[in-house]
Amino acid sequence: MPIWTRPISIEELTRIHQDTAPQHLGIEFLEVGDDHVKGRVPVDARTVQPYGILHGGVSVVLAETLGSTAAAHCTPPGHRVVGLDINANHIRSASSGWVTGVAKPVHVGRSTMVWQIDLRNDAGELTCVSRLTLAVLAPR
């Protein structure tokens, strides 16, 4: 059963990220499932650090983008979500191709949410695990 409380699609997620950091980094939304959002970021000149591998901060941007976008679409109408905490454990580097992430809920509550975001390289190897905690804000 879908967890979404408002319309969600790849097209909608792409539209709301026009002219934002995720768009400038080349983040693409790939899939919306009943309880997850999947997206990816290229490993290219925009996203690597001086060693030629994906910058850890870009992994965190991908994780927060997927998790917060998903969380926002399972709140009551008029509510918003804002990040309280994010952590990331970098497991393996990526020097080419794409890194793909999947955000899934750990806890969807009335005042807080927790999302797990796993990132993998093109070979399917885990590159980063991230956990995002968000506050759910009622309408003003």
Automatic annotation (TrEMBL):
The keyword Hydrolase applies. Pfam families: 4HBT. Residues 51-128 form the Thioesterase domain. InterPro entries: HotDog_dom_sf, PAAI_dom, Thioestr_dom. The keyword Hydrolase applies. Keywords: Hydrolase. Belongs to the thioesterase PaaI family. PANTHER family: 1,4-DIHYDROXY-2-NAPHTHOYL-COA THIOESTERASE 1 (PTHR43240:SF5). This is Hotdog fold thioesterase.
